[in-house]
Amino acid sequence: MTRSTRRETLGGLLALSTLPLLAAQARAQGPTASTRVLSFNAPAARWMEALPVGNGRLGAMVYGGVRSERLQLNHIELWSGRTVEDNPKTTRAALPKVRELLFADKRAEANRLAQDDMMAPMNEVDYGSYQMLGDLRLEMGHEEAVSDYSRELDMATGQVTVRYRIGKATYSRTVLASAPDQCLAVRIETSAPEGLSLKATLKRDRDVAFDWQGQVLKMSGQPQPFGVHYCAYLACRSEGGSVAPDGHGFRVSGARAVVLNLTGATDLLAPEPEKVAQAAQAKLVARSWQALARDQERDHRALFERVELTLASAGVPRLASERLAAASDAAEMALIETYFNFGRYLLIGSNRPGSLPPNLQGLWADGFAPPWSADYHININIQMNYWPAEVCGLSELHESLFDYVDRLMPYARQTAQIAYGCRGAVAHYTTNPWGHTALDGKVQWGLWPEGLAWLTLHYWEHYLYTGDLEFLKTRALPVFRACAEFTLDYLVEDPRTGKLVSGPASSPENSYVMDNGEVGYVDMGCAMSQSMAFTVLTLTQKATEALSVEPELREACAAALARLDRLKIGPDGRVQEWSEPLKEAEPGHRHISHLFGLYPGIEIDAHDTPDLADAARRTLGERLRHGGGHTGWSAAWLTMFRARLGEGDEALAMLRKLFRQSTGANFFDTHPYTPEPIFQIDGNLGATAAIAEMLVQSHSGILRLLPALPKSWANGRVRGLRARGGLIVDLEWANGQLTHCVVKASRKARYRLLPPPGQEGLKALSAGEEALNWGKPVELQAGRTYAL
User: Fold this and answer.
1) Residue 739: which of 15, 19, 9 has the closest Cα?
2) Residue 605, Cα to own-chain centre: how many angstroms?
3) Distance from chain centroid for Cα 95
4) For residues 678 and 671, what is the distance between their CA atoms, to the nearest angstrom?
5) Which candidate among 278, 528, 606, 652 keeps its CA 20 to 30 Å from the CA of 500?
6) CATH number where 588 lies
7) Which residues, at least 6 apart from 290, have a Cβ–Cβ distance to it below 8 Å?
8) Please, what is the Cα angle at 151 between 148 and 156, to 5 degrees?
């Protein structure tokens, strides 16, 4: 566990004397424990009310039933489908024709040609889908009335507990997913003199075979017609009483307590899943429940406890439903704390080094055909999943994303060459574990060759936070180089301006109205394309310069940047989404791709580019006026935009919108779908990152303290937020004023410091009482802890 301490000599960069009593009181209050717990007083009636546990590979949704319990099971690698070479062979020939038509303003013809000749239909059988592993059903045999029921997810321990009483007897059930032991485990116990009598059954409705290996049940199979080979083992042991195999499970009689252990594996990332799952199960034979639960909790806490946010001090509602209602200021503060904690919990539970990244639903999905295959959309969704990783001290969880990109790269290089005739590598809006990078589907979303380019930003951010030059050299640079080569080859001169533009491409999933009244999608040099080109070329420049390598590539990037068409402010004062001020078909569209440069990009900054920042504000205003932010992830992105612009109250308004219309009873982020909203994890994780961004920002070489603090967050503290340059930041504030700050530097870092808005008059002193000015560069020394 990483903590900010004051063991070392305080640097004393800033001496703040305001409100010391209130600050001391805030420190004395400690964490609000209840905001780390989601509590319910009834079992889940449906999947969107169940509670998740996960270890990055194995996961379960716990319903908490009394007579019958359902644990819906997942394994992050369980996919149907297969690897195929599916790049359309007509794209390359059509490319110059589509460009010529767009430059000639023949948009209708260009859109038709792009759809007909550049795209291929998606083969859903080959593409495949994420699938559930199955169910673990517990038939408890209870017929009597139940009292004192509770169902809780403790986000700090990573465990779900169900408790109730029948007569004088108590019953409890604890479910956890252990990363150290690579298992799902359930413990059921009772105080009833007659003990427990129950039936535990492992179920899967298709592509499955069961086999008993001694006292262990094996479930295995392969999704048809194509997919991974999977295997799971279930064992059961009791304290007292008896356990006997029964069908596809176990029958328990007269036990004081029962422990069920499930292990599982696939052959997606490693061979011989039977041996892997069996070996994990064999190790559990000598493991007591107490040791297993202790090690699981210790491992989970080591990640979860790195950051702590406290806004609520009293009057915190116990039930999750009462917090979601937010009927009081205290309830809203508890809601924000809970949501922030839940996002970090979900990232930890759905993602560990060595596993696949969290998909559209993280780790948790019901059935065999979840919406959009629960795949890896790379036109914002997988990226948003990782937004909290660095700032919330979970940097090592980024590793699974980089491993995933490594898997994609051979196919992305193939797509660049076959489809476009370009060097380097390219991927489009959606991918899967089989290496899908091709153009398919509708041009509205499919003709967007910038998904891999967006992912380069994650490599750069990881480097900025960690300072790991070896990572930059061995993991990041090959991806930068490949994306830069494709970008350089895909850029062409706009004959009307002489500037370099990228295209054809869509602005993800959005559309415009053409002169003939039809809807169009593709463009040359739309804002998102130009921002992506700017980002890839700039980051490649910076990376090669930091490593002192590849001067030719750096010079090529610099030459292209000098001619690159940049973001435009349209006649209406907004950031212009398309190359021309075209009429929007959906003014309230969920994607706000033309503001990529504001976040997570590097082009728009409230201090450095005030005109573009003002245009971004106008853009946000118009999007919201027409109903924008109507999906959870879109509301999270809008919250982040507001935070970057220093608009705390507006950021809070977007959080409230997300809570009100895009948050399920179990705090899962929701996305509009038929017949009912579905879970997408991106909104949870994006909003968690946005809350952190409201409190600390560190982009553009500036450390901003409380840059977007809402008025209603008058008192609070946060511990352990990370800043670029290897900094760990603790803050406390009272009556809306910063009262205490500690910054620990893990390595040498150079920053300009900005005080919270409204506190510019604070006197800043160095350790030697030499006066410093806000905004002047300050060097923080490695290993030092500074009190600000």
Assistant:
1) 19
2) 23
3) 34
4) 5
5) 606
6) 1.50.10.10
7) none
8) 130
The three-class DSSP label of residue 301 is helix
Look up residue 603 and give its two tokens.
């082009």
> Is the Cβ–Cβ distance between 627 and 416 less than 8 Å?
no
The reply to whether 168 and 228 lie within a common domain is yes
Q: What residues have CB less than 8 Å from 422, skipping those under 6 apart?
A: 416, 485, 486, 489, 490
Phi/psi of residue 778, nearest 5 degrees:
-130, 135
Q: How far apart are CA 100 and CA 757, in angstroms?
A: 50
152 and 235 both lie in a single domain: yes
> pTM for the complete prediction?
0.95
Identify whether the C-beta of residue 37 lies closer than 8 Å to the C-beta of residue 153: yes
C-alpha of 390 from chain center: 11
Give CA 358 to chain center in angstroms.
Answer: 7
Whether 308 and 399 share a structural domain:
no
* CA nearest neighbour of 159 among 364, 345, 319: 345
Q: Is the bond preceding 225 in cis, omega lying within 30 degrees of 0?
A: yes
Q: Which residues, listed in sequence order, are joined to residue 139 by a DSSP beta bridge?
A: 68, 199
- Give Cα separations from 778 to 704, 714, 742, 781, 786 (angstroms): 13, 29, 15, 10, 12
211 close to 200: Cβ distance less than 8 angstroms = no
> Which residues are CB-contacts of 295 (< 8 A; sequence separation ≥ 6)?
178, 180, 181
Strand, helix or coil for residue 741: strand
Token representation of residue 6? 């004051």
Does residue 133 sit in helix, strand or coil?
strand
- In this structure, are residues 630 and 672 in contact, taking their beta carbons and an 8 Å threshold? yes
Contact predicate 764/753, CB 8 Å: yes
Flag whether 289 is in a domain: yes
Same domain? For 103 and 198 the reply is no
Residue at 215 is within a domain: yes
Cis-peptide into 504, omega within 30 deg: yes
Q: Is residue 686 part of a domain?
A: no
Dihedral of CA atoms 428, 431, 437, 443 in degrees, nearest 10, equals -40
Q: In what order do the strands lie in the sheet with 249-255?
A: 51-54, 58-62, 68-79, 130-139, 196-203, 249-255, 242-245
Q: If you search the block for the tokens 């964490």, which residue do you land on?
A: 31
Rounded distance, CA 548 to CA 621, Å? Answer: 44
Within this chain, do residues 317 and 458 fall inside the same structural domain, yes or no? no
The radius of gyration of the chain's CA atoms, rounded to the nearest angstrom, is 27
Count helices and strands (H / E) in the chain: 21, 36
Q: Which residue has the tokens 């717990």?
A: 37
Residues 104 and 171 in one domain: no
Contacts 24+ apart (CB under 8 A), 517-521: 518/108, 518/111, 519/585, 520/107, 520/108, 520/110, 520/111, 520/582, 521/111, 521/114, 521/442, 521/443, 521/444, 521/447
Please give the Cα distance from 60 to 77 (Å, whole number): 14
Residue whose structure tokens are 């080959």: 126
Helix/strand/coil (H, E, C) string of 617-653? HHHHHHHHHCCCCCCHHHHHHHHHHHHHCCCHHHHHH
Structure tokens at 445: 């979303």
Hunting for tokens 């999906």 — which residue is that? 631
- 81/369 Cα distance (integer angstroms): 12
β-pair type (702-705, 749-754): parallel
- Paired strand residues for 575: 569
Reading phi first (left if > 0) and then psi (alpha if -120 to 50, else beta), residue 595 is in: alpha
Query: Which residue reads 């994306």 in tokens?
Result: 483
**Residue owning tokens 């169910």:** 135
Name the β-bridge partners of 753.
703
